[in-house]
Predict the 3D structure of the following.
Amino acid sequence: MAKYFAKIGADDIVVDIQKVADDSIDTDEKGTAFFNNLYGTNDEWLLCQKDVQGVGSGNPRVWMAYIDGKYLREDNVFIDVCWFPSWTLDKTTYEWTPPKPKPEQRPDRQLYWNEALQMWLHRKTVPDFEDDPVE
């Protein structure tokens, strides 16, 4: 089964993800040695799982690594990019949490977070495409 490895750059940011078909390359050490030999570098590569996601999944790194995401060394997990400064990291799920709970989705609307207003908005998905604030 193919394995995925994340290249860890400055400030523990994920800068690359590579797939390896060789089943014997199945640890951080083996992956790091393989890629550094292949590319003639001295980088850090960490095993990441594409098919196992979330807390309780058995994956020691909880989520799949994403380019521009981050590796939290102290927790040994990958986290995605945080798109909004107001959101905080939930250390039980390792997911970004908005300051206000996400409301229910409406069938004719697209729900999105507006950082400037600090609120959820519904956008009509059929003409006339206007926004409705969510209280």
Q: What stands out?
A: The longest helix spans residues 28-39. The longest strand covers residues 14-20. Residues 46 and 61 are 10 Å apart (CA to CA).
